[in-house]
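User: Fold both of these, please.

Assistant: Here is the first one.
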Amino acid sequence: MDRPALLVGVASALGAGLAWGLVFVAPLILPDYPPALLACGRYIAFGMIALIPAWLDRRRMARLTRADWLEAMKLGLVGNLLYYTCLASAIQLAGAPVPTMIIGTLPLVIAVFANLGAERVSWRRLAVPMGVLAGGLLLVNHHEMRQLEGAHPPAGYGLGILAAVAALACWTWYPLRNAAWLKAHAAIAPGSWATAQGLASLPPAIGGYLAWGMISGRDGGFEWPLGPRPLIFVMVMLLIGLLASWLGTLLWNRASRLLPAALVGQLIVFETLAALVYAFALRGALPDPATALGIALLIAGVLLGVNLFRRRPLSAGSIIVAEPPS
């Protein structure tokens, strides 16, 4: 495919992964805050931050149709709120190891489903980068797998696994649907579409936050609405709302428009890599040899995947339509 488009698309996916990796840092900074509250707080911040670019970009935003807003709401509900609710529930019900490994298969699952569409490549050629990615994911999750040895499943373990699979399904559907919509609506700029998703996520996020407050208010187990460290909570929510949500979505939209869906699916691994780097930086430690080898395999898998599509000519169904300037 076109080399400049490939480079810009991969760089955009890398930027999105670096931004999304910050989401995994928030629970480490705020361990005394429930995951569901962090998810709602993130998307409230996303929606409020989106009000600023929405006003600055009001001419383009006014061109969005009712169908566009309905699509943005569906993407926001499934890819944002429902995904994080399922993931948080899975971790609470089944513990962290198994849900982490299930969600860790996202780059492979998305690449497989994407390759069933119009922008498909030979399964034999796709198997090489996907195999390398699979090996890397196994190695970086070796710590979680060790925790399963001799462990007794907690109560609600089965429901937790179902919730993790539901989270996997949500974020398999989201990037494929989002990419298809962007390529079918070339007049919508990636930034405008990111803003629209933020605005569409705001009402349900506020509703979820209020509902959580009503539930927590009954048992008195949490200092609602802002918890025990309100200033830190607000600052972290604003940070990930701006970087992980708005900027990350904008960059991912750009990558989704420029790159074939099967390649974009593999590039979600950038989020895993960023989360690992941030986690080790917070710990002030270096990864153990198995994890380091896993990271190297993940990087190698990405390079193999990019090289596969660099050599592949564009099919009629994957011609890039120039987007209007931002």
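And the second sequence with its predicted structure:
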Amino acid sequence: MRYFLFLIAALFFKPVFANITVYFNYGVFNTTNSKPYLETYLTVSGSSVKFLPINTGLQASVNISWKILKGKEVVRESNYNLMSPIASDSLHLPSFIDNQRFSLDNGQYVLELIVTDNADKERKSTHSEKINISLSRDKKVYNSDIQILESFTKSTTQSVLTKNGYDLIPYNINYFPKKQNALKFYVETYNLDTVLGKSSKFVYSYYIENNENLQKQMGLSGFQKQNAGKINPLLAQFDITQLPSGNYNLVIEVKDSLNKIQSQKKWFFQRQSDARSIALNENTNFKTLEEFFNAVQSTDSLKEFVECLWPVSGFKERDWQQVQLKRKEPNLMRSYLVGYWKEQSADTTDPLQLWYTYYKQVLQTNALLKCGKQKGYFTDRGRVYLQYGKPDQRNQVNSEADTYPYEIWHYYRIYDKATKRFFTNKRFVFANFAIADDCYKLIHSEVRGELYDERWKLRLVKRTEQEPNLDKTEHKEYFGNSINENFNTPR
């Protein structure tokens, strides 16, 4: 997939004509019948075109002309008008998007594009791009281009935005400013059924790496298990709130049952952010825990430092924390925090380094596991992450047949920081019953003292299966449903 911003300057001596700002990219995909198609994405900046009065407000219109050539032959062409959303006033002029699909055979093409402002024909942007299409059903695993998304929702009617049951709204630049904190993406993989065998198990592994040193960014990785088919889609997202400014790659890998990489796809992007990671020894000015907390003048910050201890604290400690939070006295909170971390270090580690390590995990939790405005350490997943640590395996299932979205976390050996006990080979199951948000609830765990529910599988399929028999614990088998496998053999 390629990204372009093309601007055409004002013509000759007419400086009153503004440029049209158009963001353009494209992706190449395949069908089950091995008929490739080109998908194009356009975003026209509302501030760069002329809006005219209509009965209900203001509206702009552009003419879009496509030509796709193979050599000198025009194999596809289209010409149509694209209307903007209606604006209520001239201070808030919306941008507008356009998606098109062109069925094309494998080969080399040239795409020519002209965008003209219908309210002022002198405003015209043009672009030309070479495109190679090479997708086939031979003994090789192929990936489509990675489609970056502004948003995605369950589709109610089929449209040009629809893929595999979801309406995908494109995000047409590879730059994420401070206010854009979600990286959502879609990709397809082809030929896995011929290479691995029909219905063979494989894993989508995806993560963010630094573009300069190729280091994986902590907390920004995930995976999905699927069965090999003619086309296997992946729809996923990352919260990049705590990703610092820099150049990065989104990496998507397909691994077979032997953990061998069958294909890899990368997408470069840039991030602007005020976030920064807390290194264990970056605060060289602070020699002791007392110096660190004495330097914190914000009562709200001290309050958060106390609050975030909740997941790793016992009942008695939580009672004391509630007292500190109600009083909101900075000196008492500083004294409590110093005492807490000195007790945790128990003369075996530096309490200041111990605090840095834990708070780095808190920041990751807030970025990746929050629920709406609720901070990550107050959510079920965030509490488990901080109390027991990062799971050895995290299986995220966002779009399985007849189930709510769910996650299964598997720990080989864990230490409960709240009760100071060790456990081995334990699992946690979280479900998102709201679907529209990212709020997952703990519905089952094998750890003593955690929520245990024999009927948790029925809760996952309750959207399609109502079971009045309270003694029943197993759900019906649905095509494409892998709850039992995901729980018993996570990876």
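Residues 2-18, 278-284, 469-473 have pLDDT under 50 and may be disordered.
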